[in-house]
Amino acid sequence: DSEALFALISSKGIEKAIQMLDGDYAFACACDGKLLLARDPVGVKPLYYNTGAGFAFASEKKALYAIGMNEIYSLKPGYMLTYRAGKINEKRVSGFNAGEQITDENTASKMLYNAIEKAVKKRRYTPSALAFSGGLDSSLIAALCPDAELYSVGMAGSHDIMQTKKAALLLGMKDKLHLHELTINDVEASLPDVIKAIESCDPLKVSIAMPLFFASKDAHNDGIRVMLSGQGADELFAGYKRYESMNHTELQSALWNDFQNIAENNLERDDAVTMANSVELRVPFLDKAVVELALRIAPELKIHNGTRKYILRLAAQEILPQELAMKEKKAAQYSSGIYSALQKLAKKNGFRGERFVARYLGKLEEALL
After folding, report:
1. Higher pLDDT, 252 or 3
2. DSSP-derived secondary structure letter, 183
3. CATH top-level class for 105-340?
4. Which of 71, 132, 192, 236 is most buried, taking the most CB atoms under 10 A from its CB?
């Protein structure tokens, strides 16, 4: 990959080369007496830098903290940073082109299915794993990648565990399902590793990261180094419940805002927790062609008669059983049962009152510093 990239830069120039890239990347390039950093337009891959005494960059914040650099910045998705003679310049060099709006649901669903199918095909790897919750997004990827091993993690008896068993059966992939039912002791023992990996003690981030931490760890132990994820579908196709009350204009604005912040809110966390187990996370829904198509699809096709992700559900019916295509979403931090476990652990350790889970996790993070 690196050789092909730098050959492209040599022949086309840095900006043109970046604009020609189709994939997830974060890289640095030294040329003509300057240092260039670049990050993919979604921000799937993280890239941090510091401008204190000198200049340094890394894919993890902790690497910069380790050399005494505390003012750390995240390079914005789609941007290129140039560092030369102590001066920094940032410039947006890649993004997405949204064409004419698509309002016909048959046209939109067929185009969307084809785009997602191609995106999954591009990211398939043998052997590969899938972070599987049994919901619409991961079930669609599973159906399009039937040779993938399905990894599901949750508290024993949780919604996710029950849902994944049923979904794998409906998909005819029961023999591919790897279930990891956690105990509260498992959660407690893994908290330092998860907090250290994601560099955050935020309860929401920790509760979402933990199942992915165990899933990628299990995949690594099985000799798998690539894991697919359904990340991004909610922001592109209106999967969150809070979108339901919005009019079309408000929905368009909210979706775009959430998509622009997906790197900071979700992707940096997910990349960190999987890379902690030496597993590369790949996200088909954030493929450039899928994103550009999603931006063209009219908001009334994303929420239709109260059904969230309506157009994605229509597209999924090409390959999924009706029961899975129309499956309602449950928030990840609650469906796995992890957040409830964190509450119990916080109380067990004497924390009560306002933000008691956050204070408990903050105490654990302090011990890691």
Report:
1. 252
2. P
3. alpha beta
4. 132
- Spatial separation of the C-alpha atoms in residues 367 and 201, rounded to whole Å: 12
Spatial distance between the Cα atoms of 214 and 206, rounded to a whole number of angstroms: 12
* Residue whose structure tokens are 């590793």: 193
Judge whether 261 and 190 are in contact, CB under 8 Å. no
Q: Which tokens go with 38?
A: 């670049």
Pairwise CA distance, residues 148 & 127, whole Å: 7
pLDDT digits (tens, 9 = 90+) for 143-191: 999 999 999 999 988 888 999 999 999 999 999 999 999 999 999 999 9
CB 293 within 8 A of CB 101: no
Q: How many helices (H) and strands (E) does the chain have?
A: 18, 14
Rounded Cα distance between 296 and 249, Å, is: 14
Report CA Rg, the chain: 21
Structure tokens at 161: 């565990």
The CATH class of 2-92 is alpha beta
Instruction: Give me the half-sphere count of Cα atoms (radius 13 Å) on the Cβ side of residue 343.
Output: 9
In the chain, residues under CATH classification 3.40.50.620 are 105-340
Report how far residue 94's alpha carbon sits from residue 77's, in angstroms, rounded to the nearest whole number.
Answer: 8
Q: Is the Cβ–Cβ distance between 311 and 107 less than 8 Å? A: no
The rounded Cα 354 to chain-centroid distance in angstroms is: 30
Q: CB neighbours of 299 closer than 8 A, spacing ≥ 6?
A: 238, 248, 249, 251, 252, 255
